[in-house]
């Protein structure tokens, strides 16, 4: 070492400043103080390299280190000596190792390894010995019921391997969690000991109250229960810490292969949960012993109380000849007391459910022996209450039997009812008696009350049998009335069935001859089904009479013989009715089958109508719907059914409405389109095309609507006026002269086109010649059709082409003359109008011409006058009012009101597109009003009216039609209205 120091001093070249020297030496001293000797030597070597002139200061510290090392070596020799000569002295070995560890914190690796091995070996043996000693001592204290000392003893071993655990290189999250649980365990152990005292004090108080002051039991019990539950919570928290120690140990073993049971966690969780190899060990075992030391002492007390309560009640029930309600009231408090004691015992038993069960078997101290007792006691209280009710019921029944009156109308049913009640008492009594015997060996409480309860059941049996004999004495009279009643029911049922079947088709008060085979069959089947039972019932009456004792028979011997004779007669009558029922049954089944077949076909037609409707095949849908109506009516002829009648009417009506609604949506759109086309054609002067469009619209509208559309009516008025004015303006293809006139017009147009070309070439003379030829052709047309538009216009074109300047002067003159003619002579208005329209064809831009034609068209009714601002404003107002009704209401009256408003709005302003759109929406919502198919009743009446008409009964047919039209829905039926026109034509 000295040589090393000399080497250190010779290697230094520059001296270190004094302040730095002091600081380094202080660091060396600190390391020596911390027992970090190797680190101190390294720093000293560095110091000597830098400060070779400061040998004295370094030497002082080296001497100190040498002294420590020498002392370390001496103690190490002592450890070797103890290991060699005192190998069993683990405590001494651990003390020496602790001293060595304290002397130097970071010895070399070889020393570290040796000390670790020695310490591990010593600890394992020493701690295991201490552990076994603690467990044995704690278990002994537990057996001696020294629970506080036992808990403290087990807890005292928690330090074993604890330091080593926290010095290990486990994750901080693990060590922090374990440290917290160790701290919690300390508090919980202290708390549990305090709670043990509280539980014991409460237990002592409850025992005192049970003996001396029963009124205070509930409060004392609740206090005991609360303190025990708090104790249970503490106990469970300790258990959870122990279980977590165990699970943490299992987890650490997976990552630390060197970890064994010789470590902190295995020792700790066994000190808490107990060691399976050591009986009654662990903190938990001491805590759990408290359960049986308290609860098992209390349960027998409650069981004894229950036994006393029930014994008192049973004794009272057996003392009385008749068990009155007053007696039952007195027993009520005893039974309530029994139920309270059972409930207390149950609550005590339930305290076990608050305890978490550990993984070991050390806490299985309780076998739940009281569950059978609690169950049996509860059952016994229940059947005692039932037997009390039976006794009270018997008391009431006895009074009723004594008051029976032979002249009473319902005597038979009363006797049967009383007999049933007595028999039910016997059955219940027998059941309770069997339960009594069955549970006798399972329960101490039951065993103690078995005899008394058996006396009660025997008493009930004796009293019931006596009353039954009394009732049988009047039974014979009842049976005669019963058989007559059965016969009456068969006779009445047969009459009702025949009336419903109505084979003769008799009409009822409203003129209908309905047949109800299904309802009739129901009565018939019921009688056929009940026949065997009723005959068997009569036979049973005979059998019961034969079973009545001979002493009873002698009292009513003549009546019995008469009754048996009546039984035979009535039985034969019932058999005859049954045979007739069998025959009617087949007829009814046939009628039902025919009805069902027709109904099935009707429903098929309904389905087809729905499919047609989905495919927008409205005509086929209407046809199938009518077929369905006919088949439903056929079904109702065989089997009247209000439900089917209403259902079929509803189904058909719904589909019919949907056909009209859906088709009407298309119709409204199509009609609007046709009205628009008609109006456009009209505005373009093509009145024939406009009329054609409007006729289509009218026909389409009539498919789903009975009432006319006001717009169509108004447009027809305009078009008819225009057509009447323009009659002769065109030559229809159907006219016999059409081919000849068409040829002349064609030649004239050809000549005109050639004349235009010749003038363009400067050949005016040739042009005049050919144009004159054209004029001749046109003159021939005007001879037959003076107003023909094509000839008149082409003639004007020719004049303009020959002399445009003269034509313009003549154009002006003709224009003014036509205006004057229109104003002065009403008979020549049409002529004046035609002249202006011809001029318009030549020169549409001539000033004032267009406006003059417009005025003439308004004056002649060909065109509606333009709405003024007031009319436009009023039209908008009406549209808004209609829109409000449309938005807020859906009833028929509101929709019709809205429709009237938009119709008026359109009349006021024909350009009000909003009104037109709203009108279409309203008409779509209202749907078509034309009836598609009639109801079942109306269809039948309609067919009857046709038959009357065919047979020449005009008045009868007319009356039926009038009756049909009284129904609102029939007023929209096209076929009824058509029938009315036919009938009216004959009147």
Question: How do the helices and strands line up, and which of them pair or pack?
Answer:
Layout: H1 2-11, H2 18-33, H3 37-50, H4 55-85, H5 90-103, H6 109-143, H7 147-156, H8 162-167, H9 172-212, H10 217-255, H11 264-273, H12 283-319, H13 325-350, H14 370-402, H15 411-438, H16 444-472, H17 475-501, H18 517-547, H19 550-555, H20 557-614, H21 618-638, H22 642-683, H23 687-704, H24 710-725, H25 738-760, H26 764-784, H27 789-802, H28 804-824, H29 829-842, H30 849-859, H31 869-888, H32 892-908, H33 913-926, H34 936-950, H35 954-965, H36 974-986
Helix pairs in contact: 1-3, 2-3, 2-4, 3-4, 4-5, 5-6, 6-7, 7-9, 7-12, 9-10, 9-12, 10-11, 12-13, 12-14, 12-16, 13-14, 14-15, 14-16, 15-16, 15-17, 17-18, 17-20, 18-20, 20-21, 20-22, 21-22, 21-34, 22-23, 22-24, 22-33, 23-24, 25-26, 25-27, 26-27, 27-28, 27-29, 28-29, 29-30, 31-32, 31-33, ...
Detailed description of the structure:
It is a single chain. This protein is an all-alpha fold and about 1000 residues long. About 80% of the residues lie in helices and about 0% in strands. It is built from 36 helices and no strands. It has helices at about 1-10, 20-35, 35-50, 55-85, 90-105, 110-145, 145-155, 160-165, 170-210, 215-255, 265-275, 285-320, 325-350, 370-400, 410-440, 445-470, 475-500, 515-545, 550-555, 555-615, 620-640, 640-685, 685-705, 710-725, 740-760, 765-785, 790-800, 805-825, 830-840, 850-860, 870-890, 890-910, 915-925, 935-950, 955-965, 975-985. It is flat and about 165 Å long. Residues about 1-15 and about 360-370 have low confidence and may be disordered.
């Amino acid at each position: 070492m000295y040589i090393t120091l000399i080497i250190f001093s010779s290697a230094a070249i520059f001296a270190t400043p004094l302040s730095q020297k002091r600081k380094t030496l202080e660091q060396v001293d600190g390391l020596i103080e911390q027992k970090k000797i190797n680190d101190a030597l390294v720093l000293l070597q560095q110091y000597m390299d830098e400060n070779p002139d400061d040998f004295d200061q370094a030497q002082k510290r080296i001497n100190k280190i040498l002294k420590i090392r020498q002392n370390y070596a001496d103690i190490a020799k002592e450890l070797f000596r103890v290991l060699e000569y005192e190998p069993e002295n683990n405590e001494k070995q651990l003390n020496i190792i602790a001293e060595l560890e304290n002397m130097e914190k970071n010895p070399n690796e070889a020393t570290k390894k040796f000390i670790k091995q020695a310490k591990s070996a010593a600890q394992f043996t020493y701690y295991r010995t201490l552990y076994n000693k603690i467990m044995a001592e704690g278990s002994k204290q537990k057996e001696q019921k020294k629970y506080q000392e036992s808990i403290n003893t087990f807890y005292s071993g928690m330090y074993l391997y604890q330091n080593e655990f926290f010095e290990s290189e486990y994750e901080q999250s693990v060590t922090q969690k374990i440290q917290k649980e160790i701290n919690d365990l300390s508090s919980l152990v202290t708390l549990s000991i305090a709670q043990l005292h509280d539980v014991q004090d409460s237990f002592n108080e409850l025992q005192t109250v049970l003996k001396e002051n029963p009124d205070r039991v509930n409060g004392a019990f609740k206090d005991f229960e609360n303190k025990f539950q708090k104790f249970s919570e503490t106990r469970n928290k300790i258990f959870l810490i122990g279980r977590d120690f165990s699970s943490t140990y299992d987890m650490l073993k997976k990552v630390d292969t060197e970890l064994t049971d010789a470590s902190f966690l295995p020792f700790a969780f066994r000190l808490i949960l107990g060691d399976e190899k050591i009986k009654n060990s662990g903190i938990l075992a001491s805590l759990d012993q408290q359960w049986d030391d308290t609860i098992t002492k209390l349960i027998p007390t409650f069981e004894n109380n229950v036994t006393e309560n029930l014994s008192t009640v049973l004794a009272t029930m057996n003392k009385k000849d008749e068990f009155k309600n007053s007696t039952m009231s007195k027993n009520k408090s005893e039974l309530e007391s029994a139920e309270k004691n059972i409930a207390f015992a149950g609550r005590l038993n339930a305290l076990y459910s608050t305890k978490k069960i550990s993984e070991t078997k050390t806490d299985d101290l309780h076998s739940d022996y009281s569950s059978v007792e609690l169950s049996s006691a509860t059952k016994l209280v229940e059947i005692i209450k039932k037997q009390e009710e039976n006794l009270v019921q018997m008391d009431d029944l006895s009074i009723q039997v004594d008051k029976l009156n032979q002249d009473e109308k319902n005597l038979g049913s009363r006797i049967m009812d009383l007999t049933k009640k007595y028999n039910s008492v016997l059955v219940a009594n027998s059941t309770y008696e069997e339960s009594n015997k069955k549970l006798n060996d399972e329960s101490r409480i039951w065993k103690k009350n078995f005899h008394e309860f058996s006396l009660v059941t025997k008493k009930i049996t004796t009293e019931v049998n006596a009353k039954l004999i009394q009732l049988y004495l009047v039974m014979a009279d009842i049976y005669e009335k019963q058989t007559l009643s059965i016969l009456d029911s068969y006779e009445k049922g047969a009459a009702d069935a025949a009336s419903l079947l109505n084979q003769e088709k008799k009409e009822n008060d409203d003129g209908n001859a309905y047949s109800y085979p299904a309802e009739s069959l129901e009565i018939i089947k019921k009688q056929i089904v009940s026949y065997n039972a009723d005959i068997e019932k009569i036979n049973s009456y005979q059998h019961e009479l034969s079973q009545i004792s001979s002493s009873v028979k002698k009292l009513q011997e003549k009546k019995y013989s008469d009754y048996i004779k009546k039984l035979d007669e009535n039985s034969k009558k019932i058999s005859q009715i049954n045979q007739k029922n069998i025959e009617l049954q087949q007829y009814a089944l046939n009628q039902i089958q025919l009805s069902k077949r027709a109904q099935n076909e009707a429903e098929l037609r309904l389905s087809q109508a729905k499919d047609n409707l989905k495919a927008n095949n409205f005509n086929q849908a209407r046809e199938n719907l009518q077929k369905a109506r006919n088949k439903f009516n056929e079904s109702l002829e065989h089997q009247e059914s209000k439900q089917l009648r209403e259902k079929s009417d509803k189904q058909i009506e719904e589909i019919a409405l949907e056909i009209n609604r859906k088709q009407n949506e298309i119709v409204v759109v199509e009609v609007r389109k046709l009205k628009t086309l008609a109006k456009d054609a009209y505005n373009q002067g093509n009145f024939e095309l406009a009329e054609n469009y409007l006729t289509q619209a009218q026909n389409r509208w009539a498919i789903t609507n009975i009432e006319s559309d006001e717009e169509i009516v108004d447009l027809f008025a305009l078009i008819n006026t225009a057509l009447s004015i323009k009659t002769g303006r065109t030559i229809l293809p159907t006219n016999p002269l059409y081919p000849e006139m068409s040829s002349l017009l064609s030649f004239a147009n050809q000549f005109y086109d050639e004349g235009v070309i010749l003038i363009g070439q400067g050949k005016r003379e040739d042009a005049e010649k050919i144009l004159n030829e054209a004029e001749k052709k046109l003159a021939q047309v005007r001879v037959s059709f003076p107003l023909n538009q094509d000839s008149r216009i082409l003639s004007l074109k020719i004049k303009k082409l020959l002399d445009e300047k003269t034509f313009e002067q003549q154009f002006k003159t003709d224009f003014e003359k036509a205006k004057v003619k229109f104003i002065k002579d009403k008979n020549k208005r049409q002529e004046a109008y035609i002249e202006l329209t011809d001029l318009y064809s030549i020169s549409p831009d001539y000033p004032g011409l267009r406006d003059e034609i417009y005025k003439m068209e308004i004056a002649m009714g060909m065109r509606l006058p333009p709405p003024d601002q007031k009319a436009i404003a009023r039209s908008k107002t009406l549209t808004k009012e209609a829109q409000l009704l449309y938005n807020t209401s859906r009833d028929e009256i509101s929709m019709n009101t809205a429709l009237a408003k938009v119709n008026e709005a359109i009349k006021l302003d024909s350009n009000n597109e909003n009104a037109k759109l709203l009108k279409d929406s309203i008409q779509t919502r209202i749907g078509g009003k034309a009836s598609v198919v009639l109801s079942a009743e109306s269809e039948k009446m309609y067919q009857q009216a046709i038959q009357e008409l065919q047979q020449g009964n005009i008045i009868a047919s007319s009356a039926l039609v009038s009756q049909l039209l009284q129904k609102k829905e029939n007023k929209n039926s096209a076929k009824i209205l058509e029938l009315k026109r036919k009938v009216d034509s004959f009147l």
